[in-house]
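User: Good morning. I'm curious how manganese (II) ion would be positioned relative to this chain. Could you predict the structure with it bound?
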Amino acid sequence: MVEYDLPSKLLSHLSIAAEHVRSHDFIHIFSHHDADGVAAGSVLACMLQRLDIEYQVTFVPVMDDEVLMMMRDSHSKCILMSDIGASYIDQLEGLEKDVIVLDHHKTDLVAGDSIVYINPHLYDIDGMTSGCGSTLALLLAVTVDEENWDLARYAFAGIAGDRQLINGFTGLNIYVGEEAKKRGLISVIEGSLIPPGTLSQSLYVSTEPYIRGISGSSTGIKALLDEAGIDQTRDFLDLTEDERHRLSSMIAVKLLSQGVSLQTLEETSRTRYALKDLGMDAETLSGLFNACGREKMGGIGVGICLGNKDSLAYARELNYNSKKDVIEATVELDRMKVTPMENIQFFDSTSSGFTGILCNIVMHFIGDPKKPTIGVNFGEEGTAKASARGTWDQLDRGIDLSLAMKAASESVGGQGGGHRIASGANFPSIRGQEFLKNLDAIIGEQLVNHAK
Ligand SMILES: [Mn+2]
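Assistant: Good morning! Here's the predicted structure, ligand included:
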């Protein structure tokens, strides 16, 4: 059992926030619209519902002046923010309301005295890896009432959404994880390559892993499961250990013959966390919250946390439909082939528009794992949008996609940048070939300079 104590400053901030919450009869929650934000906002809404406090929830794509205006115009005297707020923390006092901010994004801005501001960075905890919006929302909910620990299951979906479960629990998530395990709310499932969910569906829309001939193919799935001796209607969570091993090994063989790297196999077969009574794991629920947020229906997430079965069914359908669009675009791309250049590989995503998503899939499951993957949407009005994805291994060999995309796009009158491992660029569509040629050369130089 891992012992982890919450920082005392955090505990005192949480009890101040809880007191503020209890003093209102109507609270307006504002949260981000991604999986973490939807989970966090929904956990908070559920907390207020149980306190019999009236509430309104607004999910937003980004914190900006318009959102600030909405907060000012809100009929509530109390604004409770989750997964947003840090970037505006110095301006919130101007709202002249009771403001509570639960955010995990790093900023140098300082909060006004009257703002209740909770952020892992304030306690020297890394908010990028070790505590997110949902972690903080749950901590507030259980500070208000210990009975709210059941909401940990939904918070875990948010934590998974911000990819804070990838390397096991760290920081604040250790505390939340251990408490949730102790209460039997989450259980650890050993990693496998089988996509979670009902097999006939989860294999069909599976892009992580994308299994050539299986993903997007009902006949392929039937043949695979017949050979494994497993019925298509079975759920990943109900498989026996033996069945799980057998099916996972069969998928591994397929992926290896497809050219997938061992590292990707390892990353894909990561540990899963099953959520008690919900019949799914944290990443799956995260996908549902994400789909709700993206479709501007974050309120469905609130319904899920409140235990509404229709909300859950609706979110499942939303998510399945969007995944179906992605898998169809992936199968099509796999058929069309990715174009190899000397140091990079390239595909045209104009017809689907899923540039970033396809880039990840190509990088890990379709293309050459040695070369960075570039997707270009030649899109509307003469401006092309490109995404680039690399692997840690490529970074180790000297590749920096942030610098390369910036230089290549600027060389053709565009702009770009981002992270070393993933970045983007815009440039005039008609200069697309020139852009790719320059990018290929720049990556080549990076490799040569590193090798020296
Ligand atoms: Mn977040």
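The two ends are 48 Å apart (CA to CA). The chain is about 45% helix and 15% strand.
Let me know if you'd like a different ligand tried.
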